[in-house]
């Protein structure tokens, strides 16, 4: 089996690295292509996959083609790939808001997997939701799942609506967490802590809270109540968040990402 990754940016390179470490594929089974000259020079320094500049040299060789370019590059890229692809090839696209129908139409292929990963894939803690077109067989789906699992966990969803929805929760979600971390860091600095101490205070608080949550069956709300003593400091903070509608605002933000994914699907038709 040969896998071609197109787009060696944040996500493409992360998947190529993940797959190369997974033992599913050997060195010469991973190809990677990028159109930027500097990227290619960097890729040539990495010994565990073969780097390409021209689609003609690698697309026909691939069994699975992993698309990791920005959504607005899809049309031009698929247009150039259309004459090089073969019906048995599987496309895995991680592009936000580019639908299976659009990929079928632009490539002429039928075996399409649409996936939505997230950035923690870079440290093997990613979450990728995915869905396949009908032409992907069970065996092919399991192979794809093993590739996706090389960067963390994967979840098979029942239809594409849940790919757009998971874009709003897990795909864009790391940025919401960083937003919260940024606000807490700013508060720590304003309270007089140094940058390095602020960073430790915030990051260890996040790591510890997530660890507690993962190691029990308690809900986030139950854990909140465990931290908050009656009439105490946490209650003051939680009341302030409630008064300012923070809960609703976070949900609104997640929906903004979900709706934008749907909108991008229409724009990229
Ligand atoms: N970043 C994230 O957290 C997540 C991203 N995604 C999706 O992943 C995709 C990639 O995102 P990300 O990795 O952040 O993007 P990057 O910009 O980091 O990487 C994309 C790479 O593809 C290259 N590229 C563009 N067009 C072509 C082409 N025609 N042929 C070959 N290479 C090309 C770009 O080069 P150049 O810079 O020169 O254009 C760039 O190096 C997006 O579609 C996004 O929706 C999904 C989930 C999470
Ligand atoms: O912001 C974006 O469009 C991509 C999809 C999910 C995370 N980054």
From TrEMBL:
Domain Pyrroline-5-carboxylate reductase dimerisation: 160-264
Cellular-component GO terms for this entry: cytoplasm
Primary location group: cytoplasm
Gene Ontology terms describing biological process: L-proline biosynthetic process
GO molecular function, one term: pyrroline-5-carboxylate reductase activity
Pathway as given in its UniProt record: Amino-acid biosynthesis; L-proline biosynthesis; L-proline from L-glutamate 5-semialdehyde: step 1/1
InterPro entries per the UniProt record, alphabetical: 6-PGluconate_DH-like_C_sf, NAD(P)-bd_dom_sf, P5C_Rdtase_cat_N, P5CR_dimer, Pyrroline-COOH_reductase
Pfam families in alphabetical order: F420_oxidored, P5CR_dimer
Residues at which NADP(+) binds: 6-11, 68-71
Compartmental location: Cytoplasm
Catalytic activity: L-proline + NADP(+) = (S)-1-pyrroline-5-carboxylate + NADPH + 2 H(+); L-proline + NAD(+) = (S)-1-pyrroline-5-carboxylate + NADH + 2 H(+)
Biological role: Catalyzes the reduction of 1-pyrroline-5-carboxylate (PCA) to L-proline.
Family listed: Belongs to the pyrroline-5-carboxylate reductase family.
UniProt name for this protein: Pyrroline-5-carboxylate reductase
Gene: proC
